[in-house]
Write a structure and sequence with these properties.
With 394 residues, this protein is of the alpha/beta class. The protein has helices spanning 15-25, 50-60, 77-91, 105-114, 118-130, 135-146, 155-169, 199-207, 211-216, 220-231, 243-252, 255-258, 268-278, 282-289, 296-308, 312-316, 329-341, 357-373, 383-387, and strands spanning 3-8, 30-36, 64-68, 95-100, 175-180, 322-327, 346-347, 392-393. Strands 1, 2, 3, 4, 5, 6, 7 and 8 form an eight-stranded mixed beta sheet that branches.
Length: 394
């Protein structure tokens, strides 16, 4: 069984995601999606639960949906890509599919190799000491310039380079398959009249109350799922609703302790704490703390990781298991085969988490993340209820 993998957030799923699923299926018998859990790379709470997004992906063509675990799912491109490549490789997938603004495989490979060039590393180190930009932004600006590009890399190109670097670093046998990203640009916040929308535009329209505009450009089955989740008080989900918990944590935390955690060392933890003392809600907190060095995504990740106690070692640790979110008959057949040969366990129930320190630490962080996520729902929900949810079977 030839298997293609897709590492995705789908926050929320849209027709662009359906397109890459269709492309992956052209040469594969089974398509496995690794889907971000309750929190995503931008440090935001996913607008729709992982289980609901997984149900949409099944109807869009995925055969098996597994959860890309926290905290890697909410980390920057390097850790996000490394975790995804590690899981797909250990599951025995043959390919990894991803979209890119350039979709130039040769250019992306050249960029990924240049990232380890001593001359590039020296140039980046020199700029890092002289400029106040956020390290990730400065890193990819420098890499683009080093390779002679006239403009910085776009977000999906950055992820593509990160996937290629992870494949090389892990000596993975995954074959990269890149397709050009079509439709609206990554950060476009206006719903298009035609073509694939951006997830950013969909989220903005949802939070602005323009659900009819959103429903008009999504498949009928996704509209039905969104309406059902909304009626149950489970959509749309927003980190803003956890504002009281966030401000309380930052105002009362030990700033020295923050220095030991991921994404908040080097003074960012103290900056967040100081901003929290003056802020009245999450937008004002982010506005007070933001600088060129600390963009909004970095701030949100810092808040998440400080609240949930994520260390730098947690980000670097390879996933110890993956959790099943959804599957169909083809996915079930693949899952039955990999359970006998896979190098990574697939957990279908809480009782199935492996009994070893690494897996138990991953489980603890996942439970903490769900506890915070439960505060982000429109209607009260218990994290215990979220833990008890069964996978979607279709």
């Amino acid at each position: 069984m030839r298997t293609a993998g897709i590492i995705c957030e789908c926050n929320p799923p849209h027709t662009g995601h359906a397109r890459i699923l269709a492309e992956a299926h052209r040469g594969a018998d089974c398509v496995v999606c690794l889907l971000s859990g309750p929190f995503v790379q931008r440090g935001e709470a996913s607008i729709l639960t992982p289980r609901a997004r997984a149900a949409v992906l099944l109807k869009m063509g995925a055969d098996l949906v597994l959860e890309l675990p926290f905290p890697c799912a909410a980390a920057g491109a390097e850790h996000f890509a490394a975790a995804g490549v590690s899981i797909l490789s250990r599951l025995g997938a043959d390919e990894v599919w991803f979209g890119s603004e350039t979709a130039d495989a040769d250019l992306l490979t050249r960029l990924s190799r240049a990232a380890d060039d001593p001359a590039f590393l020296a140039r980046y180190a020199a700029r890092l000491t002289a400029e106040p930009s956020g390290t990730a932004t400065l890193y990819f600006e420098t890499l683009s310039e080093f390779c002679g590009l006239s403009a910085p890399l776009s977000p999906n190109d950055i992820l593509a380079v990160s996937y290629l670097r992870a494949i090389a670093a892990q000596s993975s046998r995954l074959i990269p398959r890149v397709i050009v990203r079509e439709g609206a640009r990554y950060a476009d916040e206006k719903l298009p009249a035609a073509g694939h929308p951006s997830a950013s535009a969909l989220r903005k329209a949802i939070f602005d109350g323009n659900l009819q505009g959103v429903y008009a450009i999504l498949p009928d089955f996704e509209r039905e799922i969104l309406q059902s989740e909304a009626a149950a008080g489970r959509f749309p989900i927003s980190l803003d609703r956890a504002c009281a918990a966030i401000l309380s944590h930052l105002r009362l935390c030990d700033p020295e302790r923050l220095e030991e955690l991921a994404e908040v060392s080097g003074g960012l933890g103290r900056r967040l704490r100081k901003s929290a003392l003056a802020a009245t809600d999450l937008p004002s907190l982010l506005s007070l703390a933001a600088t060129k060095k600390y963009p909004l995504a970095r701030l949100r990740r810092g808040i998440l990781f400080s609240m949930l106690g994520v260390s730098r070692a947690d980000l670097s640790a390879p996933p110890s298991y993956v959790r099943l979110l959804a599957l169909n008959a083809v996915g079930s057949s693949f899952l039955a085969s990999v359970r006998r040969s896979s190098e990574i366990p697939v957990v279908t129930a809480n009782a199935g988490v492996p009994d070893n320190p690494a897996a138990l630490r991953q489980d603890d962080l996942s439970r903490r993340a769900l506890s915070l996520y439960a505060l982000c729902f429109p209607a009260p929900v218990s994290p215990a209820d979220l833990l008890r949810e069964n996978p979607v079977v279709w």
